[in-house]
Amino acid sequence: MCPDSGEDTPTEAVTLEQALALAVGWQREGRLDAAEPVYRQILAVLPDQPDALHFLGLLEFQRGHEDAALEWLARAVAVAPGHAGLRSNHGNVLQTLGRLDEAEREYRAALAAEPALVAAWNNLGVVLHAAGRRHEAIEAYRHALELEASSAADHHRLATLLERCHEYEAAAVHHRAALALDPQHLGATRALGHALSRLGRLDEAAAAYRAWLALEPGHPLAELRLAACGGAPAPARCSDAVVRGLFDQYAGHFDAHLRGTLDYHAPERLADALALVLDAPAAALDVLDAGCGTGLCGPLLRPYARQLSGVDLSPKMLEQAAALALYDALETAELCAWLNAHPGAFDLLVAADTLCYFGPLADFAAAAAAALRPGGWLAFTLETHTEALDHRLNACGRYSHAPAYPLRVLAGAGFGQLRSQPVVLRRERGAPVEGLVVLARRPAAPGYACAD
Ligand SMILES: C[S@@+](CC[C@H](N)C(=O)[O-])C[C@H]1O[C@@H](n2cnc3c(N)ncnc32)[C@H](O)[C@@H]1O
Question: If I label 148, which of 65, 132, 374, 410 is the partner at 20 to 30 A Cα–Cα?
Fold first, then answer.
């Protein structure tokens, strides 16, 4: 029954079970040419033999013959609809092909036949997660974890999903379970502090960030987060590495998240304020979008601009901005350094939601004053707080500022015509994030103070 030469070749007649066992063994070893004829010979005699149909389907899939694979598997399902392993494997093939609805149907059929099939619960979780049905995915992963002593990776996967659903308490439990099984688990080590800080358990979060730093000494995000929960002094601003890392990761879903989920409107609030002080748009100004990100301010600034430039630390955010084809120039650089290198280059400088990554604002104000031409306008947004602190690094890793502070700093940097207005910048889980739109003007000529 075996075409393969060598020691595996049976010399005597074998039973169906023996033939299948041999072929499956060869298939597992990757010896597909040996296994295939066995399945075909079985099917020549027993066309509805479900195991041969099943494994031949998987073999065709291993070869990349997707249509043939699906045909054999469908035939297997037709003759053995209650075979849990078959339905689960059929689901895996469909999942790999991106046919998530059909994969889900197969996993559910597998679980109807064998409710304790852990792999099917896990794979069901994966397709539900991929389909954005996070709460159902959580339930599926939980079933799998209840059935079988599981790995650190399983706990971490569930914890990550729980965090996405803002279930921080449960997320922390599963991060800790992952760490109990594998104390060096990097993903759980990195994520535990975040869940704890979201719960307001800042001392525990600080301990978790210290554990992260013990595994990855000097990691910039761990250092920032340790400071953000009060475990170390706050830096003057988020480091270049942190900003680049965060926003490079965020770039692909930034617009959808900010606009769709967070109802973000800082660009519009800035444009409203600028419309009150600028002449009607006449494409006459040299404009800088400072921390331009994906370019959400671009459409609002373009009508004013003779030349519209954007600068940002994150190359991936800039790729999105470039795709808008609205900017004349986009540069990857740190904002203050870049402004200092471009003295007197702009008539209008706008920073929407960029300075919430800065604590003290004096360096920015001085650099902005240097980069603006006499009479040029500066406009930016900040998140605000009500405490008597000029600036504060919050547990979320962003800074907020006291409303009076930016005006004091701007006056100190020589700006006039100072204006600020409270605004709602976005909503987080339904609650408004309070902020400020700030406008200031560089005096028209050195030594000449603008009228307020
Ligand atoms: C929240 S996003 C806002 C993006 C855009 N202004 C908007 O309103 O959609 C903040 C942006 O500021 C950038 N950023 C933060 N600190 C920066 C710095 N020091 N230099 C340059 N870009 C910075 C980030 O890379 C990110 O793209």
Answer: 132
Count CB-CB contacts under 10 A for residue 447.
6
Distances (CA, A) of 259 to 164, 219, 267, 319, 334: 18, 30, 11, 18, 25
Fold exhibited by the domain 16-228 = 1.25.40
CA 73 to chain centre: 36
What's the gap in Å between 203 CA and the centre of ligand 1?
A: 29
What is the per-residue pLDDT across 395-420, written as a single tens digit (0 to 9) for each?
989 999 999 999 999 999 999 999 99
Q: Which run of H or of E encompasses 129?
A: helix 118-130
Q: Is the CB of 356 under 6 A from ligand 1?
A: no
Q: Select from 288, 311, 357, 383 the residue to mutate for testing ligand 1; criterion: most ligand atoms less than 8 Å from CB.
A: 357
- Note the pLDDT tens digit of each residue in 295-333: 999 999 999 999 999 999 999 999 999 999 999 999 999
Domain residue spans of the chain: 16-228, 247-441
- Superfamily in which the 247-441 domain is placed by CATH: Vaccinia Virus protein VP39 (3.40.50.150)
The CA distance from 51 to 43, in Å, is 10
